[in-house]
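Hi, here's the filled form for the chain we discussed.

Project: internal
Contact: R.S.
Residues: 246
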Amino acid sequence: MSASLTAERMVQASPRFLARMAGLVAVLTTTAGFAIIVMGNLVDLQDAAATAHNILANELLYRLAAAGDVISVLYIVYTLLIYYLFRPVNRSLALLAALFSLVGIAVGMLIPLCDVAALLVLKDGASLRALTQEQLQAIALLFLQLRAQVYALSVVLFGIYNILTGYLIIRSTFLPRLFGVWWAIAGVGYLINSFAIILAPDFAALLSPWILLPGLADLVIPLWLLVVGVNVRRWKEQASAAEGRQ
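And the returned structure, exactly as it came back:
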């Protein structure tokens, strides 16, 4: 039996279980938020020496943040679960949303690589003895600046994912529509913040963190899925209607 067929039968048998699994996986991926907080406290993208000192003085914390970035790749599982959950609403749109998320995850995989590369440069100076300490610090900061740009690009894709999924929630009958509006607003905020980081960093600094506050939806909605789940009767009604249209 193929994996897709197994997943499909699981959805039809227990959409509430599917929703709760999605909520659980999403909560696990909040390690990315931990990484953002840690990096925000340790990294100064304008000061290579201070950043190097902060990282080496808090190496364990930095490594935990890098591990958090790795764990967040579990968002792949969450994306697939959400796709199966909302496929009865609009299959094509659910697939498009999933593709944006998966590409965002693929781009985001560069983030932990940048984390590790910066630390290697600072810790393994013996293999780079031809470079001065200031040069090593500058290279490490370059990796972290690249990390910031990669993060901004990935969040553009996740912003589109949030908007599309928010629309699916609004169109669904098995989750509160307010969640859909909230998630879509969060997606718009992600887009504004990311383009500001790429095009106008000084303006982005003025927006942060207020522009990202609607992003709390990325925690609240998964918690709802984990604790409450979905209205199974309405989900099955919508799934039956979708099958009838095919």
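Let me know if anything looks off before we file it.
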